[in-house]
Specification:
heterodimer; A: 183 residues; alpha+beta; seven-stranded mixed β-sheet; 40% helix; B: 367 residues; mainly alpha; 2 strands
């Protein structure tokens, strides 16, 4: 798969990102997604970590300890990773072009993508069920980063679980063929 | 519909079947008797509606209470037969195999617990080894970064020293000589890693898998920077002090920039390397803390005091239907649950840690 025309969009409100042109992993799953109490908690943790000025301190008794635990595992890298960076890129495969978009939680361009999750069970099972490896592959391909890292807080075990993802273009190649236009 | 009785199952004797029929008959007769008695008692109360003489009211109430006692006695005489003849023998079987009391069950549970502890200890040891391997990998990767940074700085310091010396003396040295001085700069050594679990062979394998910086390239790069610096030698000679100050400032900025890049790279390398460690999952052992019971007034006072002091924090653990019936034993239980989660202790109370197999509440599955 050829990736070109990479553009980074910083300081873009989430609503504006949603309006941007492109196919994201979430948009492919949009029909299945119904916000639950769990996913809302995850959003709050994201906001508290990456955009604290926007956090309204609701559910703080759960959000703050989870965020603290995740920050502990991120260590010093948190200082050097860019937060909430939107990326758009052209994914091209077999003569078909797909306009891709993604919003990365934490990023060191060309080096590492980190995605933060709050899960009600184990990370490995969630990856199998929700295909998070494909989501991370999209982020990595779109930012030319060789490594993706999912850092998840497991609410059941109350522990942080981590999984390294080596980007695999297969899923996105298929999306190019399925949803792309002739290049 | 037919009134004929169904044939008896083979496992039921005629005597047993007759006993059940007698029991049913007895129950129906008793029900009839008790119903009549209940009606008669209600009549006693209704008749008192128009009575204003407290002596007669008291007399009727006494009769009422006496009849109620008789009802209870009559009912108990019947239900105690069921208790003795049916319920107790059936419950005896349950009790025989009750997990809480069965010695063999407890022996097996302890065996499982012991095996789990052994496996958990082995898993922890293995995880320590895996974590140390990860730490060593990060140490080597970050170590080379630090060496590269220190070597670059040493080379730049040498360049600055050469240039400052030459400007001060007003003599420009030959490029060949400057290259020679850079060659003399030693490559710093990597910090030592003190391993506690991993072997030298494992360390060697990791060390050899991580590429070293190309020190020759670094030397050539700084040599090129030096050549660039000397291009303005004649101009700088006219204003030595300011030129030296400028070069020192520029070197400082480069050094800070390199340091920041190295710090960022080291932090990200550490995050990646430590995340690569896939730990072995250890079997779970449920640990809980319990307040040791001491049958004394002092112990009871200590429990009450700890309960009142921590009442707000204990709220999630308290499960009472009736606060008026809350016992000191229940207070001690709640304190134990609270201590399990928080690790807190309480003045005057001794705590003990218990280990047991953890089953899910509804499906009796091991957690």
């Amino acid at each position: 798969m050829i990736v070109s025309n990479i553009k980074y969009h910083r300081d873009i409100p989430f609503d504006d990102y949603l309006k941007m042109n492109g196919v994201s992993f979430s948009s492919l799953k949009a029909d299945e997604f119904i916000p639950s109490a769990g996913s809302m908690l995850g959003s709050k943790v994201h906001t508290y970590i990456n955009e604290p000025e926007k956090y309204d301190y609701s559910d703080a008794e759960m959000v703050i300890p989870i965020a603290k635990e995740l920050r502990k595992h991120l260590g010093d890298s948190f200082t050097y990773l860019e937060k909430e960076v939107a990326v758009t890129a052209d994914f091209q495969h077999n003569g078909m072009l797909l306009k891709y978009k993604g919003r990365v939680d934490l990023l060191k361009i060309g080096r590492l993508v980190v995605d933060i999750k709050v899960l009600s069970g184990s990370l490995v099972k969630a990856v199998e069920r929700f295909n998070y490896d494909k989501q991370l592959s999209g982020y990595c391909l779109g930012t030319e980063s060789p490594i993706g890292l999912i850092m998840a807080f497991n609410k059941l075990s109350k522990k942080v679980e981590k999984l390294i993802i080596k980007p695999d273009p297969t899923f996105w190649e298929y999306q190019c063929v399925r949803m792309g236009v002739p290049a | 519909m037919t009134n004929e009785l169904a044939p008896l199952p083979q496992s039921v004797s005629v005597e047993q079947a007759n006993a059940w029929i007698t029991l049913a008959e007895g129950k129906n007769n008793l029900m009839q008797h008790l119903s009549a008695q209940a009606l008669a008692m209600q009549k006693i109360l209704i008749d008192l509606n128009k009575c204003e003489d407290y002596r007669k009211i008291d007399e009727s109430l006494a009769t009422y209470r006496k009849q109620h006692d008789e009802m209870v006695k009559t009912r108990k005489a019947f239900t105690s037969q069921i208790e003795k003849g049916i319920i107790q023998p059936l419950m005896a079987k349950e009790k025989e195999v009750d997990p809480k009391e069965n010695p063999l069950y407890n022996e097996m549970a302890n065996k499982s617990l012991q095996k789990r502890k052994e496996e958990a200890a082995a898993a922890e040891k293995e995880n320590q080894r895996l974590r140390e391997l990860g730490e060593f990998k990060a140490h080597v990767q970050n170590g080379w970064l630090a060496v590269e940074l220190a070597y670059t700085k040493a080379l730049r310091d040498k360049v600055l020293e050469n240039y400052t010396t030459d400007l001060s003396a007003g003599v420009r040295r030959r490029i060949e000589d400057t290259t020679l001085t850079l060659d003399s700069v030693e490559i710093p050594k990597m910090e030592k890693f003190t391993a506690s679990i991993i072997t030298r062979e494992e360390m060697a394998a990791i060390y050899n898998s991580i590429p070293k910086p190309n020190f020759d390239d670094i030397c050539v790069k700084i040599g090129t920077e030096q050549v660039d610096m000397y291009r303005n030698f004649e101009s700088d000679l006219k204003n030595k002090e300011q030129a030296i100050a400028h070069q020192k400032n520029a070197a400082l900025l480069k050094e800070k920039d390199d340091e920041n890049k190295a710090k960022s790279e080291a932090a990200i390398t550490t995050l990646i390397t430590t995340s690569e460690v896939v730990e072995v999952v250890a079997p779970k052992i449920k640990k809980s803390v319990k307040v040791v019971i001491v049958e004394s007034p002092e112990w009871a006072k200590a429990v009450i005091a700890a309960f009142i002091t921590n009442l707000n924090d204990l709220a999630p653990y308290i499960r009472v239907k009736s606060w008026s019936k809350l016992s000191i034993g229940q207070m001690a239980d709640y304190l134990g649950k609270y201590a399990t989660d928080t690790g807190d202790s309480f003045a005057g109370l001794q705590l003990e840690e218990l280990e047991k197999l953890a089953f899910t509440k509804h499906q009796n599955q091991l957690i």
